[in-house]
Design brief:
54% of the residues lie in helices and 12% in strands. It has 215 residues and is an alpha/beta fold. It folds into 2 domains: 122 residues, 3-Layer(aba) Sandwich (Rossmann fold); 76 residues, no CATH class. Helix 1 packs across helix 10, helix 2 packs across helix 3 and helix 8 packs across helix 9. The longest helix has 17 residues. The structure holds cytidine-5'-monophosphate. The site of cytidine-5'-monophosphate (C5P) has 14 residues, from helix 2, helix 5 and helix 9.
Length: 215
């Protein structure tokens, strides 16, 4: 009989454009795990409301929409628009919306052989018992530059100063909200990518995961 493989959950949190998405995808690929960008669940909820002409500030309507969300249909190319990110951070302050989405995120985390989840509250709320937790951050200026270069790289137009202002506004909304604010879990490993390339961050994370797996 082959020994049972352990169920692994890796939690990756941090502010917008810190590099957590890329790091999470790399970790999921390396360890053969599923990956859920939980930001997409908030984005999809916001987009569904906008598409149906529904208000973004009615908690019961937003929670009903969040409950009906199908995680298998999340399409990054459709949901990555800047305005959807803004709208997402507005619905994300509502406790009933969070409860509905956290339930779906936890169900995703339970699937075998395990998963990498990235977001704002994975290590603190969604998966407090994760095998290992990372908090990925970088200075606002560096994050704004990355987002700017990404948009330009995709053939779009971008203004660095307004991207920086938006990042700072979103950080404040995510950090200051009462329910599940953005903050590192007490046992999270900090990865500051201000001067570190994503490859270096991945190598550092991989070593830490390997060590946690040996324990
Ligand atoms: O990460 P992303 O920019 O796609 O997230 C969009 C918004 O969704 C964030 O600004 C945040 O307000 C919200 N979010 C959250 N909790 C998560 C993931 C995202 O509140 N776990």
């Amino acid at each position: 009989m082959t020994p049972e493989k352990p169920h692994i959950v890796i939690a990756v949190d941090g502010p917008a454009a810190a590099g957590k998405g890329t790091l999470s995808r790399r970790l999921a690929e390396h360890y053969g795990l599923s990956h859920l960008d939980t930001g997409l669940t908030y984005r999809a909820t916001a987009k569904a409301l906008i598409d149906r002409g529904l208000p973004l500030d009615d908690e019961d309507v937003a929670a009903k929409t969040a409950h009906a969300l199908d995680l298998s249909g999340l399409d990054r190319s459709v949901l990555s628009a800047h305005e959807i990110g803004e709208a997402a951070s507005k619905v994300a302050v509502m406790p009933k919306v969070r409860r509905a989405l956290v339930e779906a995120q936890r169900a995703f985390a339970r699937t075998m052989p395990g998963a990498v989840l990235d977001g704002r509250d994975i290590g603190t709320v969604v998966c407090p018992d994760a095998l290992i937790k990372f908090y990925v951050t970088a200075s606002p200026a560096v994050r704004a530059r990355r987002r700017h270069d990404e948009i330009i790289g995709n053939g779009g137009e971008a203004d660095l100063a307004s991207i920086l202002a938006d990042i700072e506004k979103r950080d404040a909304r995510d950090t200051d909200r009462a329910d599940s604010p953005l903050r590192p879990a007490a046992d999270a490993h900090l990865l500051d990518t201000t001067e570190m390339g994503i490859e270096t961050a991945f190598e550092a994370a991989r070593l830490l995961v390997d060590t946690a797996l040996e324990r």
